[in-house]
Task: inverse folding
């Protein structure tokens, strides 16, 4: 078992079950512009590459749709107001983070969710454990995952190197992000993608439950 000093977590599908709130906001935006709505399972497959890509996949015709920008802004506004309606940590996550902090580990979150929502969710659910939370802010030159930029920015803000760091996520995007950052990846099996899908995308280390991360 390798001893890690730094744990960098994905947010949606890894620490927090955000799917219902995301789907509700997606469908509110679609309904507002007379577009067909999607099931939660559809939205599960749409997430992972940031909220703009989520809406590109949800809106008929994607960005080519003349109402896309309006629908996207409606989604953003609705989600910022409703991101805490049903969202909660997965069972065992709070205890995992508390134990890692007790062991003196550095803990960060990197997400393709927009910056403000990432910050607010981490402050609300993990105020005593997550040191740094990095959301999407490409305007400042930090590219979204799977580029390694958010990981590198989190390491920089914590003042640590990538040596003895590990990435924890639930998707193919997370596997690629860890690879691009040059750090190992633990793929979790309680999130938005199943084991078969993750294995096809190169996953090699799995956690069935949060407590498993303590012994990997």
Result:
């Amino acid at each position: 078992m390798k001893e890690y000093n730094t744990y960098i977590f994905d947010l949606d599908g890894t620490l927090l079950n955000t799917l219902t709130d995301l789907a509700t906001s997606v469908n509110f935006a679609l309904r507002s512009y007379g577009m067909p709505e999607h099931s939660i399972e559809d939205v599960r497959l749409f997430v992972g590459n940031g909220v703009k890509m989520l809406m590109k996949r949800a809106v008929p015709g994607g960005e080519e749709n003349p109402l896309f920008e309006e629908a996207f802004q409606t989604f953003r506004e609705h989600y910022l107001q409703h991101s805490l309606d049903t969202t909660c940590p997965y069972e065992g996550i709070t205890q995992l983070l508390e134990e890692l902090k007790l062991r003196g580990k550095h803990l960060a979150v990197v997400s393709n969710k927009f910056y403000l929502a990432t910050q607010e969710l981490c402050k609300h659910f993990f105020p005593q454990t997550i040191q740094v939370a990095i959301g999407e802010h490409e305007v400042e030159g930090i590219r979204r995952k799977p580029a390694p930029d958010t990981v590198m920015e989190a390491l920089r803000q914590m003042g640590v190197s990538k040596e003895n760091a590990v990435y924890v996520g639930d998707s193919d995007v997370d596997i690629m992000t860890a690879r691009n950052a040059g750090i190992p990846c633990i793929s979790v099996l309680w999130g938005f993608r199943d084991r078969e899908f993750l294995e096809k995308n190169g996953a090699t280390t799995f956690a069935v439950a949060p407590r498993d991360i303590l012994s990997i």
About this structure: The chain has a mean pLDDT of 96.
